[in-house]
Fold these 4 entries.
Entry 1:
Amino acid sequence: MLESLKRAFKEATNVASQHATNGGGGGGNGDGPAAAASGNLHGSEVAQSPGSGAASDAATHSSNGASVRVPALNPPAVCADSRQTRISVCGLELEGVSIAGQETCIIVPRAKVAFDIGRCPQRACFQQTVLLSHTHLDHVGGLPFHVCTRNMHGLPPSRVVVPEGFSAGVRRLVDVAAELQGMQPLGFEVQELQADGELLLPSGYLCRAFPTTHTLPSQGYVLYSQRRKLRPELQGLTQEEVRQRRRAGEEVTVTVQVPEIAFTGDTTAAFLDGTMTQQQEQEQQQQQQYGQEAAAAAAESGPATAVGKGEADARGEGGEQGGEEGTAAAAPADGGVDNTDSGRLKSGSSCSSCNGNAVLADALRARVLIMELTFLDDVCVDEARGKGHMHIADFVAAAHRFQNEAILLTHFSPRYNRSHILEALNTLLPPALRAKCVPLLNGIE
């Protein structure tokens, strides 16, 4: 173990030295683009903070007589055998694994959700809701395990949210797994979330979908917290004046929705425009055909719930057992007024650059955006687009679109190791963009 850590540190040092010689990224000042990772040898958590420069976590080394500063890699940051290392991004605890073609599952305990299910990491089983972006096997393969495990532990049935037209196929996937185990069909809930629909999750978050561009019909998700804000016309009053109005029976607050977490799943950069590309038109036709076939099979597989605009599912999770994790994200429990995050209120959405797609506009200014970045500098952009994935060149070209506080980059191709990924990000991303980016490196050597 110690030798592997030494090799990893030496490799990182060589990369940083080369960057310094070539004038590349990863400099040693506090405003540099490198994101720091910190932790301890005996802990399982790694805190990765966007925008934290190398000054606080750097060491000085000599290379050919020249002193260069390189990021200090603490043990948890290089333990590639870990699949469940937690990271903290803007105060939001996340965990999971995302490697292109192998598995993608991002767990958000606070919201009690898993974005995609991959091979179903153990802790994903304790999140009741699974939000599927699409049905490629590396994103949906672990679903039978999720359903069976929750059933075995006596937890409330899995709740799976899918793009329109895929509920019957997802149900068949789980039914076949149960049949192969000699079991009766397992109870779980499948819901189709349309682009104009919304769901109220048991954790208190509101979920909406937006279209993405992949080789299958796909969609991303935005989770909103719901908070009480002082009515605009009452701004400027003293606290005592507000209390007097409240005592008199006047409603002094309004409920607003704040985009907190967004997830793209697999997609090209074309989703940023919110328009129907030729590829999307083909996908839409495929989806309609799939939906017709699925409807014919739905009677045999059991009913599915399609949720459209205005049909918020407000069912709670009162029977959730102690094994469940997460906390509600609703208004303050003390009845106070929350005046934070005024710049991200839904009422202030601007979707002019997203061709009228308000949910997409919210995704691009959510506190944390979880976005794929499959290909780096060794694959041509057209090839990446043809495979339905994001290329780093497209990401850089769209840098001005991202108003997020932090971007968790996922779904790197397995052809890259940690050093390759960090080198590409430090070298190719503009400093302002690099400062808000955190790569998810769990499971990557």
Entry 2:
Amino acid sequence: MDEPHAPRPRGGRGHRPSRQQPARLAALRAGAARLVGQPRRRPGGHVPRAVGGAARPGRHRGPAGRRRAVCLGDPSGLAARPGPPPCRGGAGRGGGRLGALGRDAGLPLSLLHPARPLAVARRCLRPRRARPRARRPCPEAGAVRPLALAGLLLLAALAGAAAWKSLPARTPARDGPAPIARLVSADIGGMRQWLLIRGADRTAPILLWLHGGPGAAQMPIHGITAGLERHAVVVHWDQRGAGKSNPPGFDPATMSIKRFLADAREVTALLRAEVGPQPIVVLGHSWGTMLGARLVARWPEDYAGYVAVSQHVDTLHGAVLARDWLREVAPGSELAGLPAEAFRDHGTYVRLMQAVEAHGGGMGVPLAALLPRALAAPEYRLPDYPRWLEGANRGSGPMWPDYVARDLIAEVPRMPVPMLVIAGARDRNTPLALVREWLASVEAPRGRRLVVFEGSGHAPFLTETERFVTTVAAFLDAVRAPP
């Protein structure tokens, strides 16, 4: 007699189905497959694996130690198979005939729930495949490419400019009936100094341009007033400590009014040898007028005329007038309350001029606006630009005690050559009131003329260039004409 034994639960590891079960389960699964659109399983075939997350009550380890997932509604464990867990579902969601069919067929209840769309079931029953991740284009890609191209073009332009600026300095040829275009270096005052000589007619009067500063060389921006080259041989001289004449190791102690006057005399002799015997007209701007007025008044036999642009008269008196103007436009400025003697200090004077510039009483043109033209000047190479800026920033500091003590009214009471004075009405650096005062006091037997540029400040040749060229050209033509 057989011994009684406890029945094994369905789905247990040792359960062996009867011979009738496989056929019945195959039929049930075939019916479920028709409901959800799965291809019919052949006898002994494989039911496609469900993909997705799993809501599973538990996991078992198979004989080989591999993880087995158990579908919900399959207590027999016949649907258990190696691989990822089946689709999400929950116990008790399937009901009625459909739920019973799912439990017997070993399908997840979530697929057979009437609330689930049939398309979701089809997707869940498809064999799992690795989906290639789509490459989404970067939204900024269209903007990055032009920017990258612009960056490359900029780098190429900078490299080309650097290569061009490393070539020897030169000046372009000049057109005209008897043109002259020369960049000259010579030993002047015991050091190498540079001159730019340009004109359409080498027999025309020589216009010797004395730049401001000291140190503010005009050569790199000479093209602004190139119209003067049709009426004169224009000479831009980089004075000692300025631009190309500011070499490494330059000694600022050599800067003095006496030394600059001696250098100017050597330049005059050089021009006679290099250009010719024609008349020389001296044009000075700002500091250049401080030098030019004394040069022409002392040696009138060598010069045919004098053009003063923003004539410097008296440094200390001019600073007081600038301070008084600053009181009107910026009453809260601490500089507006300083006494006159405070401006004998070079640093205080520089701060005053910076404040005047900031409030519209200076040049009227920022340095940044001049840089493109200066950088394009073929007469200057890369090492010249730091020297140019260094000289301009040094200014009159090394010679300040002598500079501030000068008074044009006392030193130049007589101008023996024809004189043209150009002044900007907005100039507070060299105030128009002081210019008028000097013109009223100076003796000028050959004539004087004052032209006020109402729209300009300290640099009329930058702000009203066309009128400036026309005015100076008329003066040069008068000098050239026979008496």
Entry 3:
Amino acid sequence: MSTNTEHLLFDDRGIHEVSSSTIPSEYINFINGFILPPTNFIFEKHVDSIADFSFLKIESEASQINLSIIDTYLPQILSALLLCVHDANNELRLLDALNILTTTNPLRYDLSYGHPMYEYKIRHLLSCLIYNLSTIESWNTPSTGTKGAVIELENGSKICCHIYNPNRFIGYLLDHLWVTTTAKCDYTITEKCNNLVTSSLAFKFI
């Protein structure tokens, strides 16, 4: 299996490949799975249709609270992303999913002035994640993240991202992230009890 490492520098000049020896050590921070790890969402099923599922909560209380700290309605936004993924056969480009949310506007934001509400909130989530704020652990201590991250691809290769321009890096992530679900049955939904069902959401870097 390949273990090649590509070093990308994100700065005011753009995105370009560099030698690892040119990167200051304080900018190298190995963050395992800094992109949103698989997160279980619990829905109430009204009838046998994805369109009739109502979001109840995130299975992990810590994840629910952490996401709510970023934005009160972020759990609801992510659950809406998850339903978009189900409609798209379990995998969807993040930008396409955000376009769907903007069109359907499930949270009924005032979009009359053209504000990209859903994209902004996902950008804010990604900003928190790249600075090493885990959605799993409680946020009761300051983040120890520096301006860098390592993305490990499925083939074993790694992309070391050294970030001098966070906004540009977030734009790069938006262009390369897909929303996916890890469940493997009908509707990619697993029955839990009565009318409650659970499904898992994750971001995948491509």
Entry 4:
Amino acid sequence: MKKYVSIILSALLIGSTFCTPGIQANAATTNNTSNANLLNTYGKVFGKVGNILNASQISDPNAKSAIKKEYNSVTAENEMKPDAILGHSANVIPVAQAKALGYYIPDNYSESTVPKLNFTTVDNMLKFCFDNGLSMRGHTLLWHSQTPDWYFRSGYNNNGGYVTPDVMNKRMEFYIKTVMNHVFSSKYGSVIYAWDVANEYLHAAPAGSDKATGWQKIYGNLGTKPAFVKQAFQYAYDTLAYYKLTNKVKLFYNDYNEYMEVDNIIKLINYINSDRKVCAGIGMQSHLSTNFPSVAYYKSALQAFAKAGFEIQITELDVGCTSLSEQSKYYYDLMSAILSVKKSGANISALVFWGLSDDHSWRRNDPVYVRPLLYSNYSTPKEAYNSVLKAFSDSAYGTGSSTTKDSTNTSGTTQTLSDGWYYIKNVNAQKYLQVANNVGKAAQNVELGTGSGAAGQKWYLKNVGNGYVTLKSALGNYMLDVYNGENKDGSNIRIFNAYSNNAQKFALKSSSTNGAYGITTMSSNQTKALDDYNFQTFDGANVCQWTYGGTSNQLWIFEAAK
């Protein structure tokens, strides 16, 4: 989490025939490595492929242009850290005023004031992600660095003494719940899919040392059983429970040099979860260099965390080097290892890089291990970028460097359901296939939405022979339809006048997820399927056609409707 550089995420390219209505998908099939990018390769496998973003880059057109094709997830570089929200200097307000502002004040909070929190930049970044269909990792709530010292002192005053653990517990509850309440009560809060609750605890300077911070000065040295860290996760989890988000937003412990701290991290997370499971797993920062760690050493850490039952998110990846050719090989070997562990069953759910290009990297002034990223500048990919894509192509998830084999391991067998009315729920988003705005007319867009029972969410399935079905909307004589009957990744899904032609015929495919089916299209000869684009989870997320891989965003549950 040594932070310097960020990226900006923006809207996808404009177009009329592709994935989002009025928005063109940037991807071609992963079977063609010349058109592959991070989003249509790693994004399809891990669900989230991301990078960092800071507030200033939102208005940078070069950063926007560079990011369009590569990512679907953002991590705020600094804007969600405690000092960005609390401020470097204390600005306290009476508790009564704080309550009027909607702040969470814990029971038995004994102080007369709380800090006024600044959410302006947080809100801007959340809105940006929401408007551009991007997901976001919350980062971070509890950290010994970038947290002002006054936050730990009596009266929130730099000249006061350090407060007691009991007082600090209440302050921590106030801060965590107020921040999370603010985000999740916002119309933009749905972009959050994960949150780093505690960051780098195992690397905090011990109490009694010159570099000890307020957390250690108040709570002392607690090893792998820090009660205050466990309490922080419980506060955060309780907030998710309040908003009914415990199945949608995951909480993580995030750390660096994680491959050197495997045993301690496992002990720490198991302690955090000793009363109830509140921490999903480990955020592996992965600030690496070509000389250390070895790929084998890193892979062994991945395997250990997977064996411990943890969800794994790679959160801050970069690879410093002295030789670009060595870096290219390291990235290839590293990504091959990560994909191999994923294929073996590890729950790796995000791959996030720490910087858009070398000339913006926090490591650009390192005297030895510089140039750690996949682009040298916003528009120039490096050899390492191509190696990362080749690692995917050569993996079990790709097609190999020169072959075009089918995904027979994921396509499944054609299944038959009874004719009748159904609600159709996407496995990834846990939202329903619906006609936009509940309006029945030719060429009306189809999207995802929270279950409401509206007519626009009801579909009549009819078997029409040769394993194909049609899906007619309850809004009138309109059927689910692939735009122009195209056989392209990104072709939009809509309703259109019911003709029962090839563009309106679909085949249901079995999957390894019980009760879930892929909905492949006749227009693609069953090689493509209905796809929750970019694994989005918000209401209004678009549905398009994409090469079928059997991933959760391409699986659907049919619920009988009256």
